[in-house]
Fold this protein.
Amino acid sequence: MADTSLDTVAEAPPKDDEEGTLKSMAANEDEEEDVESLPHSEILDIFEEGLARLVQNPLLCDLPIQVTLEEVNSQIALEYGQAMTVRVLRADGDVMPIVVVQNASLLDLKKAIRRFMELKQQREGGVKHISWRYIWRTFSLVFQGEKLDDDKMKLKDYGLRNRDEVTFVKKLRRK
């Protein structure tokens, strides 16, 4: 009897839900074949067009055209109050808007500065390699006259808030 019940189950017509699922699976397979048949350059063009439309959104309009997912996520986190912008003033007067999470440490800020500079170099060209070990040995970050030197300390413990300005200052040599 157990064998007959298995035969009946196998021969039972599919229900409407199952039929819809099977049809959608078949449609997905057809779409995957269509996607696989497109050359890489066309897929890249489609993606870039979608990304350009996304960046036209008023929430994301400050982002560059060649935006990364990391930058989009940072901008959204900033809009929802989960992140803050720290303005880093360089010696040449250039201001870098660096986005970090609210509870970021000084080390997180340094990593964000490094990532900002890497992305800027990729987009604009220029110097291929920066020795960050040299940078952090030679320069300090200063906020309201206080040198930020403890990498583990949170930025909010230094008193940094959204849109505050931090300055690169050359360290004095000891003799």
User: Anything to note?
Assistant: Strands lie at 83-89, 95-101, 139-143, 146-148, 165-170.
